[in-house]
Design a protein that fits this description.
alpha+beta, 5-stranded antiparallel beta sheet, 9 helices
């Protein structure tokens, strides 16, 4: 087994495994939950209370120290007894390639050693996008309906920098998913071609392997670049603007390491395939090649004009079977030659001049 095709196949298989880990992460709260693109702590917003019983005489909405105070009457199920209302969102969000999960901090979000625990995940979808701004706006709309008030992000002193960050990456997220799926498709084709090239090497298979490897490497490199840009934009946008409202984000280092490692492995696979193609692709082992040369296989070896016996097929003259049989059934015999095709020693006897009477002796030819 040669080393170059084996390294090519091993690199492609490893890259495929890493990409599938990134693709299937977050399908459930316990499925590769640590391979997130980025995560967010919104525990302070999630625990904001909405109070409608201040009675300070003004028709206003005030957000102070985690409490949004509203002058007016809350209406829930036809009753006006509700004075405090929670926004009703999760404290923690983890965003993955094709979906996102949500959870809370245990034992409490304000404890120093609190840990985030995922409780549910959305159904994976190619069209699913995570937008924290939309989630909070929907929650505020529900709270406002319960309090008989119209609420918006401005009531929470929500910074525009976070809203802009999610707006910037909206189109990039769609492009990332498209390149991700295209790259995985060509990666699978490259893996199949690499398997065939390992056991049945040929130049055509090597060319197909090189083409699929190059396309997979390029598309997944674009995917990794887009993912890096999305993660950097969102995390920096949240952390630089979210201190005042208690929102923070962290990038997924595991995801970044896996996706760039897959690109590096595909680059190695492409290099080994290129080297294999440049060095001639398939080569016979030395012992088999020398034996074939010794036996005369594949070489043009014309027959003696007077040869009347049989030759192996691979040593025969390139002519039709009909002309070959005619040529072998009627050997060439020059009238002035003493060569007899049925004489075992005719080839040696023909070297003796006709005027000499067998100077070597008759016994020499026995």
């Amino acid at each position: 087994m040669r080393a170059s095709p084996f390294i090519t196949l091993l690199s492609a298989l490893s890259a495929a495994g890493l990409m599938f880990v990134c693709l299937f992460a977050g399908y459930s709260p316990t499925t590769l939950s640590s391979v997130d693109m980025f995560s967010m702590n919104v525990s302070r917003i999630a625990n904001t209370t909405f109070n409608n019983s201040t009675g300070n005489g003004c028709s206003c909405v005030e957000f102070v120290n985690g409490t949004l105070t509203i002058n007016g009457s809350a209406v829930t199920d036809g009753h006006t007894t509700v004075e405090v209302y929670d926004i009703g969102i999760s404290e923690y969000y983890a965003v993955y390639t094709m979906n996102y999960c949500e959870g809370n901090y245990l034992p409490h979000y304000y404890d120093k050693g609190a840990k985030a625990v995922l409780t549910s995940c959305k159904t994976p979808s190619v069209s699913r996008r995570f937008d924290l701004v939309s989630i909070i706006e929907d929650a505020l709309e529900n709270v406002g309906a319960s309090l008989n008030q119209t609420l918006s992000l401005d009531d929470l002193d929500w910074p525009d920098g976070i809203t802009n960050a999610f707006g910037y990456v909206s189109s990039a997220s769609t492009a990332m998913i498209a390149f991700f799926l295209i790259g995985i498709l060509f990666l699978l084709l490259a893996t199949l071609a690499g398997t065939i090239a390992l056991f049945r090497p040929s130049k055509n298979i090597t060319v197909i392997l090189l083409m699929t490897s190059v396309i997979a490497c390029m598309t997944l490199a674009i995917t990794a670049g887009l993912a890096t840009g999305i993660i950097t934009t969102v995390v920096n946008g949240i952390n630089s603007n979210g201190d005042d409202i208690g929102v923070s984000a962290s990038q997924g280092n595991t995801f970044m390491a896996l996706i760039w490692s897959a690109v590096a492995l595909l680059f190695v696979s492409t290099l080994t395939t290129t080297a294999q193609l440049c060095t001639g692709g398939r080569r016979e082992p030395g012992r088999r090649r020398r034996r074939r040369e010794y036996d005369g296989y594949g070489y043009h070896m014309p027959m003696s004009m007077g040869y009347g016996g049989h030759m192996p097929h691979h040593m025969s003259h390139p002519m039709s079977s009909r002309s070959m049989s005619h040529h072998m059934s009627q050997p060439y015999h020059h009238p002035s030659s003493r060569y007899d095709p049925w004489d075992l020693y005719g080839s040696r006897r023909s070297l003796v001049p006709s005027h000499m009477d067998d100077p070597y002796g008759e016994d020499d030819f026995r």
